[in-house]
Amino acid sequence: MTMLAFSFCISLVSQAQAKTGKVSGAIKDGGQKTMESATIMLLNASDSSVVKLTIADKEGKYQFEGIKEGRYLISVSAVGHAKEFSEVFTVLPESVFSVKTIELVPQAKALEGVTVTSKKPFIEQKADRMVVNVEASVTNVGANALEVLEKSPGISVDNDGNISLKGKQGVVIYIDGRPSYLSGADLATLLKNMNASQLEQIEIMTNPPAKYDAAGNSGVINIKIKKNKQVGYNGTLSLNYTQGRYPKINEGANMNYRKNKVNIFTNLNHSYRDNFQNLDIQRTFRDKDSKQLLSFFDQEARMRMAGRSYNAKLGADFYLTNKTTLGFVVSGFENPGSFRNRNITNISDANGNLINQTRAKTDVTENWRNFSTNVNLRQLLDTSGKELTADFDYIHYRSSNNQTLVNSYFDNAGNPIQPADTLLGGLPQDIAIYSIKADYIHPLKNGATFEAGVKSSYVKTDNDARYDSLINGRIIPDLIRSNHFIYEENINAAYVNLNKQLSKKWSAQLGLRLENTNAKGDQATTGQTFTRNYTQLFPTAYFTYTASEKNQFNFNYGRRINRPNYADLNPFIFFIDRYTFQQGNPNLKPQFSHNIELRHTYNGFLVTTFNYTRTTDIIQEVLEQNEQRNETFVKKSNIATQRQIGLSVNAFKQLTRWWTGNIWMNGYNNKFSGTINDTTVTLDANTLEMNISNQFKFKKGWSGEIGGFYRSAGLDDVFLLKSFGTVNMGISKQVLKDKGTIRLNVRDMFFTQKIKGSVKYSNLDVQFQNLRDSRTVSIGFTYRFAKGKVNGNKRRTGGATDEQNRVSVGNN
Fold first, then answer.
1. What is the pTM assigned to this prediction?
2. Which site among 158, 202, 262, 764 is 20 to 30 Å from 138 CA-CA?
């Protein structure tokens, strides 16, 4: 069926004819000076072979003539600078293509057998995404991937590890172009156990094109793991120690070997993390109808989380011919951990007089295991740029989660008033994911490019939550709370995409994606089942207008979907304490959003973006109360419509030869309206987010950074958060003939990353304060080794998408 679909797509397009055109451009260095005598190579986009070579003139300009119609890119090199590449472009017959000015960054001297790459800027703004270069920030040493995301422009992480982008939840996380297939606490655990030294880049796409899965209300974040492109052997060794209130340590190795037509690569990493979290909650219980004050709850939770992570990846690429590349990757991790919560709840009457006290002790031991494999094929069909790629992914997660919850009850004088009760829970989870996809690229006449692709995925999750009560020393099965839930989902998708340069100043890209979803849920304990079948279209449109060399305007639109996480559909209960628990909702429906962005780029360094988003059937985590039982439970429901209007500004500038600065600001208004617990709720608030980073490069291999982020008071769905921020600072030094780097940094140096907020609607009135182990000091050492030369061939990444982001992982 796949090949039939491709044959049909190919029959719709015409063949490109080889005619000649011209290519021109200019070269500058990081200080905006022209680069005379730089070497410029025109390369075939299909196989990176050299078409022509020239030298820049004294003004840094160059030109190629007699170029056949096709897809190309420019490679630029100059003594004392790092090699740079242009974006891929298409040459039209009898026309001149103007390549965007390429800037070269000064480079440290080349060592014998080693090419030392120059330091990239912390933030790069590209046409369709913002790129965060992880190693460019000294303060990332000792951090984990979740902390790197948290300090990246536009990204925020709440107390539970849920990730938002520009004030909108529903972001999808990819790792090396493949979906993580995790969500919520599960995704947070994975990212916390991923060392920042493993990461190369964070790609932030607020409105991805049609080739990406339509999942993700606020866009896609792609985490790119470090890769090498050298013939011979090369690698990196790292060791980091971090001290907060408790210690954390991680070490890793990243190695690559290439010879002839075989490339082998591996990543190994181990980490240990010990953290704390203090959560204080004040709840006011009122009668739902009369609003009469009933009681006060003052809750103190003191949590301790510790865990280890063992990660491994092994892969190989086989360059079978000049046009055919076959690759595979196998990877896995094991994350054993523990969670301890000591919880005291003081219950007072309407006058504030203490009635009684409940002391809860929760202990959890858990272990997450993962195995995944990817097989990929890349086939160049001819020299015009026709290309076929295919990916197969298999991913398996298995977890164990054993809980012990003990509640003891005392009067206002501290005397026991009833026997303690003990609840024992076992919550194993098993997730299997299969995905297959294929993509085709076909260059057309007049500078157009046609793309098409198909994908099919299948996911099965098995959650068997078993609870027992310990009564008088006897274990009694708790059949009411126990639940066995099996969920199966199949998504079939196809897309087409057309990219065309309409004129010298105008270009456009139009896409359409179709996704067919078939889901089935089975509550094996009760025999209840449900099925969901729906098919949806997701259009995308991008228009670019280059008004002048310094001014460019972009407009884009996309419709997206956010499906419920697998665990959120499971109706089982997860107890936080005697009076607080989480519960799934099998009636959840997907939410849909319309996203519009208008962006202006000035002189390549100042980017201003206006965005508008409207989301319907929003999946929202809400709090509900049972006044008779004094219980509060967390549950996700399709409760509302949300509208967001925002304006962001990003400026990146090399202020001097030794000082580079970046500032990102985003102001937005969120309006939330819906029905919660039979009550109409309308919330509206303005929020300002700011991220500032300054990098300094000194003599003798020294460099430094100071930066931080700030968020004003604002609305995070139904939670009204007070303002908070953080300041980070770090220094680094090149050692061992520039093969090694020592880094020292302090994160949240003034201990200001304290989250406070409230939830007020209907009869709900809750205040909370959250403090975690955010102020840390880290020291790290990285050693690089290599023998060989840089090679331009790139490994492909896998093709799995949305499914992995919707798995939910433990408490660490």
1. 0.77
2. 158
